[in-house]
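Before drawing any conclusions, I needed to go through one protein's amino acid sequence and its C-alpha cells, quoted below without any editing.
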Amino acid sequence: MAERYFAHSVKLGSVTAYTEYLKDTLLLVQTDLVYTPFGLGKNPHVMISYLNDVPTLTPTGGATVSYSAGTTAPTFITGNTSDFVTIADGDSSTGYVLTADVSAVDMITEGTFNVIYQVADAAGNTSDTLAVTFTITADVTVPVITLTATTLDIEASNVATWDGGVANMVSATDVVDGDVSGDVVYTYNENTSGGSVLADIAAAIVFLGTEANAVYVTYNVDDTAGNSAVEKTLTITAIADV
C-alpha cells in the first residue's frame, strides 16, 4: 500500500534537491518527491510529500514452469525484464532494476529448482522476493549421431589389411549423458540396408574382398533415459584397384 509522509515548515535553505528558485516559486524534479511552496514571502517554506510505493512482482503464466531434462536454460532476465515475472508499481517511479538469483539452476537433474526474483524501483523501493519454480521432467531429447562420411570406397584387393575403422568415423553426443560415442551399436548388412546380416566387422571385411560388394553399416545409440538416436548409415563399397 502506498503511504505518504509529510514534512511541514521546511525552510528553503533546508531543501537541497531543486532545480530552480524564481520569484518565491520553487521548481524541482525528483522521483517520488513532491515539493509544494507555501508561506511565500521573505522566508518561504515548502511542504515535502513522499509517495512510498513498493513495486511488486507476480509470476507471468504461473509460479511453476516445466522443461525436460537437458533443455537449454532459458534467459531468466533480459535487460530489466523477464518472461517469468511481471513488475507493478503504483507511484511515479520510472525505471527498475530486476535481479534473479540463479544459483540453484540445474537443467539436467529431474526435480525442481527455484529462481529468486527481486526488483527495485528508481526511488530505491525494493519488492519482496518472488520464487519461480522450475520443474525438470524426464529426459526426452534424443542423442545425435555424427558421421565424418556416409560413403567409403575400399580396394577389394587390399581389404584384408583394412582395420575396419568404422568406429573412427562416428561420434555421438547427448544433452544429458554427454559423449556416448562408446555406446554406439553397429550392424552390418550385405549390399543393401535390408540385406543379409553379417555377424561382425570381420565378416564384413571378408564380404568386401569381392569387387562390387557393398556393406551397409548402421549406427544406433540410446541414452540412459532410453531415447534412441536417429540412426545413420555408412555404405562401404569394394572397388577395383586404382
